[in-house]
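For reproducibility, we list the full input for the glutamic acid complex.
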Amino acid sequence: MTHAKTRFAPSPTGFMHLGNARTALFSALSGDRFLLRIEDTDAQRSRAEFVQELLADLRWMGLAWDEGPAGAEPDDYFQSRRGAVYARYYKELESSGLAYPCFCSAAELEVTRKVQLSSGQPPRYSGRCAHLSVEEVERKRAEGLQPTLRFRVPREQAVEFEDAVRGPQKFQAGDIGDFIIRRADGTPAFFFCNAIDDALMGVTLVLRGEDHLANTPRQLLLLEALGLAAPAYAHISLIVGDDGAPLSKRNGSRSINQLREEGYFSEAVNNMLARVGHHYDSDDLLSHEDLKARFDLSHLGKSPSRFDITHLNHWQELAVRAADEDTLWAWLREETRAITPAPSRSLFLEIVRSNCMFPAQADEWARILFTDELPMEPETEAIARQAGESFFLAALDAAASAGPAFAHFMDQLKSGTGAKGKQLFMPLRAALSGRLDGPEIGKLYAALDPTRLRRRLAEYAGEAQ
Ligand code: GLU
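The corresponding predicted structure, in tokenized form, follows.
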């Protein structure tokens, strides 16, 4: 589609999770112009703090909107502020007889619904209030009853549209039943304000979860009745967890702000999400511009898409490896930066880049290298002990004569002890870092302050330093 105007239309009733984040990402990637609209018509469940979070999450993901709210303070891109707009269209539908007040109570509707279900019929409004006379309506109003407003669905019409993901769609309007477009408390129903705003805001492509597929015929009927232009639709498959069940906390779903707090890079999150249900020819970590340039609606898949944390971690690893010094430095925890001596900064960042995936791991390494904390498992300590005191005495000598020249230190240690390979590296690693894996040993050697280095070798050399 050329020059598509897309939108993301979240309801601020909770934190943004992976499913919503992917809808936002796909919408931003597929639009030449990307609009953000806050659907806060449910006053009970919408909260200002969720709007704030949402905007922060979208900014963090780099999904800048070309049109939308200026901030968290409600403006014209918040549905709660658009009552006057909706009122005009209610009036239009009512005066042309395409909408009517309905006084059925929730309890009455529930009874009808149960009867229909138990006789194998699809539940839909019975039409009980569809033909009330003006007098009847007035009498009920005078009794203090607050009606909902229902859209009169044309009975004999098929609603057809082409879904960009799911292909041709056909629904019988007669199966739908007259539906509520304004609740009894005066607030607009989702079908209504969502469709009207898409039209009024010039949205040409609606990309959203397939849980909305069945809403689309209702929205198309409304738009047609009002003579408003309908957008194209792309209903994307839902994300499921690795157990095949809908994504939830139990199978690994996380909110975007949780991921951000754990230290995931937005680039990693975006590269992962962009490939959940959408195919790219490239397995490289792509920039936002590249993700956008190569996004293709025809690469969206119909089957449910799986979220797998190992995929996210793969992209995270690539993002850390690719990050420049300033980015990595800013990513570290404040306490990590505070204990990293300025002259060791570049070396430490190199260590972080090739060994860590999260700021918490970088912090462990900073403590090992730049403080006297040296947590060690008994097996690790045993490996250092087994090398023997003479090994570490030779290491102390080698360090004294080599100074910062690591290659020289190793040559001398090798010739002094006859040890090589694992026998050489493992005890050294254990004594210097308390660990058997991690950064190249030359980097450990270079990052440790010479006094601390000596002290750690002396610990196993039977010498009090
Ligand atoms: N506010 C709706 C939601 O969050 C928007 C659905 C749509 O994209 O049309 O589910």
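Residues 104 and 129 are 7 Å apart (CA to CA). Residues 83-236 form a domain with the Rossmann fold fold (CATH 3.40.50.620). Both points were considered when choosing residues for closer inspection.
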